[in-house]
Structure formats: structure tokens, C-alpha cells
Amino acid sequence: MQPLGKSRMEAFSDGVVAIIVTIMVLELKVPHDASPEALLHLAPIFLSYALSFLVVAILWVNHHHLLHTATRITGRELWLNNHFLFWLSLVPFTTAYIGENHLAPLPVALYGLALCLAGCAFDLLRREIARDQAGDPAMAALHRRSSRTNAVSALLYLAAVPLAWVSVWLSVFIYVLVPAIYFMPRNIEKMAAGKQPA
Amino acid sequence: MQPLGKSRMEAFSDGVVAIIVTIMVLELKVPHDASPEALLHLAPIFLSYALSFLVVAILWVNHHHLLHTATRITGRELWLNNHFLFWLSLVPFTTAYIGENHLAPLPVALYGLALCLAGCAFDLLRREIARDQAGDPAMAALHRRSSRTNAVSALLYLAAVPLAWVSVWLSVFIYVLVPAIYFMPRNIEKMAAGKQPA
Amino acid sequence: MQPLGKSRMEAFSDGVVAIIVTIMVLELKVPHDASPEALLHLAPIFLSYALSFLVVAILWVNHHHLLHTATRITGRELWLNNHFLFWLSLVPFTTAYIGENHLAPLPVALYGLALCLAGCAFDLLRREIARDQAGDPAMAALHRRSSRTNAVSALLYLAAVPLAWVSVWLSVFIYVLVPAIYFMPRNIEKMAAGKQPA
Amino acid sequence: MQPLGKSRMEAFSDGVVAIIVTIMVLELKVPHDASPEALLHLAPIFLSYALSFLVVAILWVNHHHLLHTATRITGRELWLNNHFLFWLSLVPFTTAYIGENHLAPLPVALYGLALCLAGCAFDLLRREIARDQAGDPAMAALHRRSSRTNAVSALLYLAAVPLAWVSVWLSVFIYVLVPAIYFMPRNIEKMAAGKQPA
Questions:
Q1: Neighbouring chains of B at 3+ CB pairs within 8 Å?
Q2: I want to staple B87 with a disulfide (CB 3.0 to 4.6 A). Which of A112, B118, D72, D115 is the partner?
Q3: Alpha-carbon distance A7 to D6, whole Å?
Q4: What is the secondary structure of B101-158 as a DSSP string?
Q5: What's the pLDDT at D3?
Q6: Using CA atoms in the order C64, C70, C75, C78, what is the torsion angle rounded to 10 degrees?
Q7: Which of B2, B49, B74 should one mutate to test binding to chain A, selecting the residue with the greatest count of A CBs within 10 A?
Q8: SS3 B189
């Protein structure tokens, strides 16, 4: 494979993620009356927006850290990135689907499925980039940790799919848990830190 | 914390702000008849769009000046930036909420709350960047001034929230006053000027 | 004034213009039946989209050439650029307003007014940048020519406003004429050519 | 013609393509009930979204490879690029038109026409850039191959237009076939490889 600049892949990804994030806020439909009740009615949609914003922002920050460590981009990596963006582009739909149907099992399950697929697609991209960095022991160690974190997240999201029919609150608990895990060890940030210690 | 390039944080912010600005113009719903009355009916929505465009543009210009002075970006700063963009992304909703309900107290109050939160989130980011620049006396002095300006703006927006139930015009006066203050001393522009005098 | 990088001003403008262009295509509402009649009904909306795409693209290309010649950006230029983007952001509204009301005088007049204001705002930005380049005789000559072209375009658009009540076709003729003039002498492209002859 | 930086042409194209891709996902209208039937009803719209995402992503990757090899951009190339983006911007409309009318002949034919026009517009841009690279025998050979691939794709899309009235499935077969061809020899990627062998 031939080296390509990574800047356009970053720019295209930034554009798509920026639009995904702001499309979701459009689901906050403006109430036609100015009563507090009409506004409170939007609370679940607002909370699902805030959660999806957080999840998409985490994936964007991980994407940032991942490409920060990459030195060359192959055509294969371009396509794994497009594949990732495709599944990510479904998050506004699944977020709105929950918001419209107030925690019914099917929308809640689909939300987990979309995040599981986006997470797996991200890990496929990470794995491809890891192959180019296999010679660097520090990077290899970080990719092993990152691989574990991504696997745990994807398995949790996958578990949330059938659990939605047991209790939607179990699935929702998982959707809140995964970002919470992320903010604890900050795995991928340390990954980049290993590459470029301050 | 490890240094990261600031260009993607800038590009992502530019994308989100560009979409926020243009989402707001979509609230100018095209009248189905070509009468001057139908057009005049849009005047308050147009004015609230113009005001929100101005406020978002001010925050973008301040963001530009702030990052212009930053030399390295930490993971913490990335997240403070995402946090800022989250609150900023609610401005189109609150703008449309006013436009739809013609200066009812609740929408007018919520507009001030969103701007107060976006302003505070911006100042958290500024404060974090200021810590890296504490060694530079000129920058430290500029951050002190900038901190004061941001505090005044946030307090004014906060005051506008309860005042909306006294008189919406008091709140609207504050919403016009804050950008007007900005254009008088041009604080943050001078801040950058201190860093790189022409 | 202090120098600022021009790259973020370019990136923000590119984002806003890209969204303006693609917002307009959303006015092409998909017909609910697959008959040729329903499709033909969209023809005037398609033509107004094509014309507005062309006009916005011309302004974007001029913006590109203009900033290409600029070496430093002041805070004043940042704001003149935001001012330009504000008027440009109204073009999707005026385009949809024509499309919705099939060449009624008021929408046709408003379309010209928005383009006149966007054109004047662009020329204010150009004039400010010209002041920095006054020392370069080649650039000064090119700015004189560019100033004349912009003035002619703005005056034509301004004339189209009252003419819409005489005959909308006179205004439409002007809206087709102005881009046609642009493609004849390619003024601003030559302007850049004068700066960097091939 | 004078050289211009290619970065803004890339950034503007990235912005437009990112919005085109994410506009299409908005056609996946959220069902108002949480039944599996309502979700399954979206399957054809989802499949048409996935196909259009793939086609637009291919064109974006080709655009990336093409500009990667370009060293200078002329005003003519800027306009050929705008021309390409114009036809590409119609893809969300034709995709939604199919989704709304479930494989009726006219929407299926129009989909092929839009892709044919976007493909031809892309080849016009490629041809213009090829003229600048005629002196490089490796690039010239690659452009000959790329020209053939683009011609085959455009002819297949053109054939799909009348075939939609014979059988929409023939046209749909072509719409699936063209991306499949692309992923076999990966023509344009090799083109860039010829320029910069790994």
C-alpha cells in the first residue's frame, strides 16, 4: 500500500462527526406552547441527546488519539474509516428512535446494536493501524490495552441488546456505564501518552 | 498530559459552529404566500436569528483567539472543548423556542440559561489553557482581564433568567447589551495582541 | 491589529458555505408519487437551486482568491467575514421563498436584496484586505478592477428589487446575467494571476 | 493559469460530501411506534442509504487519490470541482425519491442519471488534472486506465436509465455491480501507488 496524507481522512471524519452531533439536537423539537410541562416533556429526549453526544464525542476523541499516532494511511484504512463512519451515522436515528418511543425494548436494543457495530468498526480501524505500529513495543502494549477496552465496550453493548426485553433499565444502565468506564482509566489517551510522553 | 495537535480540535469546533449557525437559519420557515404580512410575521424570528448568529460568532472568534495563543492541547482541554460545544449546540433550540413563542418568559429565560452555560463552559476551557500560560506575565494579565469579562457576561445572562418573569424586555435588553459590551473594549482581541503585537 | 492565521477563517467559511449549498438542495422535496408530472413540478425549484448554487459557488471562489492573496488577518477582517457569512446564510431562505411562491414579485425582490447585501458585505471584506495590499501596485490595480465588478453586480441586484414589481422576468434576467458576466472576464481569477503569474 | 493551494478545494469538497452523506441518513424517518413491522418497513430506505453511502464514499476516495497526485490547482479545476459537487448534491434527492416510491421506474432511472452525471463530472475534473500530468509516463498510463474505468461506470449507469422501464431489478443490479467492480481492481488506488510506490 502507498502512503496517503491523513489530513483529508481526518477532515472528512471531523465533518461527518460534527454533523452527526448537530443532527441529533434537531430531534429536540421546539414546543408550540411556552408551558413548563411542554418543556419537561422533552427531558427524556434531552437526556438521550446528552448521552449520544457523549458517546460520539468519546469515539471522536479516540479517533483523534488513534490517528495522532498513525504516520501513514493506506487505501484499506480509508475504507475502514468510511465503514466506521457509516455505522456512526446511524446513531442519530437510533437516538431519535428511543426519544420518539420512550424506552420501548426495540428502540433501546437497536441503540445498543448501533453502538456495538460502531465500536467494532472503530476497533477494526485501530487493528489495521496497529499492524503498522507492531515494531514499536510501547505502541504494541498500548494497542493490546486499547483492544481489551474496546472488546469490553462492544460486549457490554451487545449484551444490552437482548437485555432490553428483560428490562430496558438494564440496557440503559449499560449505556451509562460504558462512557463512565471510559472516563476512569482513560485508556487511549495514555496510549498516545506512551507514544509522546510529556 | 501529552501534547496533541490543536488543528483537529479547531476543525471539529469549526464544523460544529458552522452547522449550529446554519441550523438556526432553517427556523426561518418559508411563508406559503407571497404577501408582505406573511414576511413581516417572520421579523421576530429573523431578529432572534441575527442576535444568536452574533453571539455564536463572538464565541467562535474568542475561541479562535484563545486557541491561537495555545501551543499544546491536552486530553483535558479536548474534553472541556467538547463540553463547551455541547452547551453551544443548545443555542439553536433556545433560539427557535423564543421564535416559536414570541417572547414568553420561559423561552426567554432558557435562552439566557443556555448562553450562561455556554459562556461558563468557554471560560473553563480558557482557564485550563491559562494554566499552561501562567509563566508568561503578559498572557497572565490578559487572562485576568478576559476572566473578568467572561464573568460579567455570565452573571448578566444568569440575571436575565429570573428577570424574564419580571419583564421579558429586561432580559432582551441584557441579550443585546452583552454583545454590545463585547464590541466596545474587544478584550480577547487585545489579549492576542499582547501575545503577538503587530 | 495583530496577525492571526487565516486558516481557521477559511475553514469556518468553507463549512458555512458547504452547509448553505446543501441546505438548498433540501428544498427539493421528494414527490410522494413517481409520476413524471410530480417530478416536472419540481423544475422551477431545481432551476432556482442550480442558480443559487452557482451564485454561492462564485462567491466562494472569489473568497478563495481573495484570501489566497492575503498574508495576515486582523480581528476586523474576521468580523467582516462573519458579516459576509450572515447575509450569505439568508440565500437558502430567499431561494426557497421563490421556489415556494413561483416567481411572485416579493420573493423575487427579496432574492435580489439578499444577493446585493451578500455582495456588498463581500466587497467590504475585500476593501479591508486591499488596504493591507495598497503598497503593491499590481494588487492595487487588481483591487480597482475587482471593486468595479463588485459594484456593477451589487447595482444590478439592487435594480432587480424594484423591477420585480414591473416584471419578475426582468429581475430573473438580471439574476442570470450577473453570473454570466462573472464567467466572461474572470476578474478575480486574473487578480490572483497578477499576484502569482504562472 | 496560476497555481492556487489545493487545501481549500479539498476542505470545501470534504464539507459538502460529509453533509451529503449525513443528509441521506435523515431520510430514515423514525417510526412513531416501536413495532418490528414499522422498523422492517424502513429496510428498503436503509438499503438505498447504504448503497448511496458506498457510492458517495467511492467518489470521495477517488477524489482524494486524484487530488493527492495534483500539485497545482487552476481556476478551471476549481470550477470543474464545483460542477462535480453540484451533481453529487443531487444524490440525496434521488436516493430519497427511490426510498419514498419503492422502486418505481422513474425514481430508479433518475438515480442512475444522477450517478452518471456525477461520474462524468468527476471524469472531466480528472481529465483536466491529467493534462498537467501528461509529462509523467507513469501518471499518464494510470490516467488511461482510470479513464476507462470511469467510462465503463458512466455507461453502465446510463444503460440503467432506460432499463428501469424494462425491469427495475436490472437497474438495481447495475447499481450494485458498479461499486462491486470498483472494489475488485481498485484502479485509482493503484494509480496513486504508481505515483508513490510504497
A1: A, C
A2: B118
A3: 13
A4: HTS-HHHHHHHHHHHHHHHHHHHHHHHHHHHHTTT-HHHHHHHHHHHHHHHHHHHHHH
A5: 57
A6: -10
A7: B2
A8: helix
CA dihedral A183, A186, A189, A190 (to 10 degrees): 160
* Cell 411506534 sits on residue: D33
Cα–Cα distance for residue pair A93/A115, rounded to 1 Å: 12
**H helix or E strand, kind and range, residue D14:** helix D7-25
How far is residue D180's CA from residue A117's CA, in Å, rounded to a whole number?
Answer: 23
What number of H helices and E strands is found in chain D?
9, 0
Coil/strand/helix, residue B73: strand
Residue type, D177: L
- SS3 category, D4: strand
Put simply, the chain B residues between 3 and 22 with a CB less than 8 A from any chain A CB are 3-5, 8-9, 11-12, 15-16, 18-20
For A158-172, write each residue's pLDDT tens digit: 999 999 999 999 999
Long-range pairs of A127-134 with CB within 8 A, sequence gap ≥ 24:
A128/A74, A128/A76, A128/A77, A128/A80, A129/A66, A129/A67, A129/A69, A129/A70, A129/A77, A132/A70, A132/A71, A132/A72, A133/A69, A133/A70
Question: Does pTM surpass 0.80?
Answer: yes
Closest C-alpha among C180, C156, C142, C148 to residue C66: C142
Amino acid B18 reads A
DSSP D29: P
Rounded Cα gap, residues B82 and A58, in angstroms: 10
ipTM value, please give it: 0.89
Question: pLDDT below 50 — which residues of chain C?
Answer: 1-2, 187-188, 191-192, 194-198
Nearest to D61 by CA among D121, D95, D10: D10
- Find the residue in C nearest to B7 (Cα): C8
Q: Beta-carbon neighbour count of residue B100 at 10 Å?
A: 18
Instruction: Name every residue whose Cβ is closer than 8 Å to that of residue A43 and which is 6 or more positions away in sequence.
Output: none
Q: What is the pLDDT of residue C3?
A: 57
Distance from C-alpha of D139 to C-alpha of D3, rounded to nearest angstrom? 20
Q: Residue C82: its chain B contacts at CB < 8 A?
A: 57, 60-61
Closest Cα to residue B94, out of B124, B79, B119, B114? Answer: B114
- Distance (Å, rounded) from C-alpha D14 to C-alpha D27? 21
Instruction: For D127, list phi and psi in degrees, rounded to 5.
Output: -60, -40
- Per-residue tens of pLDDT for chain B, all 198 residues: 345 678 889 999 999 999 999 989 988 888 888 899 999 989 889 999 999 999 999 999 999 989 988 888 888 899 999 999 999 999 999 999 998 888 899 999 999 999 999 999 999 999 999 988 888 888 888 898 889 989 999 999 999 999 999 999 999 999 999 999 888 755 445 544 544 332
